[in-house]
Predict the 3D structure of the following.
Amino acid sequence: MRILDQADTARSLSFPPLIDAISQMFTSGCVMPVRHHHTIEVPGERDATLLLMPAWRPGAYMGVKLVSVFPDNHVRSLPAIHGSYLLSSGKTGELLAVIDGGELTARRTAATSALAARHLARADASTLLVVGTGRLSLNLIEAHSQVRPIEKVMVWGREFSKAQAVVAEARGLGYAAEAVSDLEAAARSADILSCATLSHAPLVLGAWLKPGSHLDLVGAFRKDMRESDDEAVKRASLFVDTRAGAFAEAGDLLQPLEAGVITPADIKAELVELVSGTAPGRQSSGEITLFKSVGAALEDLAGAILAYETVSVGHIPT
C-alpha cells in the first residue's frame, strides 16, 4: 500500500494529464452512488459532518473519499476540513493507496473547471478573473492556463491582502497576475470568470458579463449559497458537471429555479455530454456561457487512479 501526502499528491497530479483523465472517466463511465452525508454530534460545539463519496470501475478500481467538516476547529487552530481518499483494487478489494483528500479535491475541482472551459470558453480567451482567495485560487489559474491562452490574471478577494498573497504565488509560477479591488470593473473585462467562494449572496452580477465571456462557478456548494445573480443565469447558456448534483445542491441554479427565473430544460448539457460530443458547447463568439460544478465522485476516482499509477511507475514530476 502506498501513502501519498499532500506534496506527493500535488506532484503526481499535474494538470494536463489530470484534465484528460477526468475527461476519459466521464466518457468511459463508472458506478457513482449518491454521496453520503452524516451529522456528527460534538458535545458543546456545533455539529460536524462526515461525507463519503464512493465510486468504482468494475474489475479495475474502487475508491471512497472521506471528508470531515468540524466548523469549530478554529478554536483549536485546526483546519475545519480534513479528508483522505482510499483507493482499492476492483478485483480483490486490496487497499492500494491512501491519498491526501484535500489536495486531490482541490486539483480535480480545478481540472474539471478547465475541462468545461475547453468546451465553453472562447478559444481566444486570454483574461482570467479569479474570485476568491482560498486553496483553489492558484489551482484554477494553473488549470485554466492549460486549456486557454491566458495572458492576464486578476484576483479579487474580500481581503485585498489575501488577493495580493495569491498574486505573489502566481507571479512566482510565471503568471502575469495582479490583485484587484474593483470586482465590477474586473468582471466586465474578463474573458473567463472563475469563482471559488463560500458566499451566500451573489458576487458576480449578470449585468457585468461581456458578450463571449465564460462564468465558472465552483464554490457555493449548498442550496442556500450562491455566487451569481438571477440575471447571470438568465443571460447565460447553462451547463453543469452533473444534473443530479446540480439539482440537489447548486444554489446558483436551485434558487432561480424555485423563483421561476429558469426551468430545468434551460440546462443545456452536463459534462459527460460535452466531452462525448453528444451535446454542443459554445455555439457563437458572443454567447455567454455558465458552468456550475458541485463535484462528482468520478472526478476523485480519476485523480486517485492517476496519482496511484504515476507513483507506481515512478514518474512523479519533480
